[in-house]
Amino acid sequence: GCALTAQATLNFTHTVTGQPLDLSEASPDGRDTEAVKVFLASGKNIYVENVSCLPKGKDLFLSMCSGCHGHYGEGKIGPGLNDAYWTYPKNMTDQGLFETIFGGAQGQMGPMYGALTLDDMLLVMAWVRHFYKDDPKEAVWLTPAQRANFTPFDGHNDHTPPVEQAPVCQAT
Ligand code: HEM
Ligand code: CA
């Protein structure tokens, strides 16, 4: 019942069942950011490798995901998210990763649409892409320019500032 200006032009489907996802189930908050608009129209996440936005994504990951996937996505009761192997190859695309987070997968991997806004999901996704530790050549989710500049993540050498000390997250 609220005015939604962000319109999906892509079709989003559940990672396990392939059924269409209903994006209107997401919170009305965090729907009309520039990043959400671009993402719903193109499947591109403009927060990826945006240094100003990584601290927020890290914060969200630590509160919502790390309990199952490990502090830096190294894997725990859920699979590692920091390497080049994906149970569901579609998670190598930002659209696929979004679909898995929004709609969930099997077992403990429940849907996140009730807990995170669409904008939050894009922020978490940017952090997941950032803590990738394997060969940048396999990071097909990055643009060629991002891939050329990407340094595999090292959790022992994480210089991400806390949110309070980070620049304002701005979509660029
Ligand atoms: C699977 C992300 C929260 C447990 C996955 C996958 C992704 C993901 C991308 C698929 C990995 C692949 O294809 O290899 C996230 C994110 C979270 C989150 C970003 C927070 C927003 C959680 C939580 C739990 C959990 C809180 C436990 C309660 C699992 C399990 C799987 C999984 C067990 C395997 C499911 C399957 O293979 O179908 N997660 N997850 N995740 N996650 Fe999460
Ligand atoms: Ca993995």
What's the short story on this structure?
It is built from six helices and no strands. With about 170 residues, the chain is mainly α.
Q: Can you offer a commentary on this structure?
A:
By secondary structure, the chain is mainly alpha-helical. Helix content is 31%, strand content 0%. The protein has helices at residues 34-42, 54-64, 66-69, 94-103, 118-130, 144-149. Helix 2 (54-64) packs across helix 5 (118-130) and helix 4 (94-103) crosses helix 5. The longest helix has 13 residues, at 118-130. Calcium ion is lined by residues 79-81, 83, 85-86.
SSE map:
Blueprint: H1 34-42, H2 54-64, H3 66-69, H4 94-103, H5 118-130, H6 144-149
Helix pairs in contact: 2-5, 4-5
Bound molecules: protoporphyrin IX containing FE and calcium ion (CA).
- Strand fraction equals under 5%
Please compute the radius of gyration using only Cα atoms: 15 Å
* Number of E-state strands: 0
CATH homologous superfamily designation: Cytochrome c-like domain
Give the biggest beta sheet.
none
Top keywords for this entry?
172 residues; mainly alpha; Cytochrome Bc1 Complex, Chain D, domain 2; 0% strand; globular; binds protoporphyrin IX containing FE; binds calcium ion
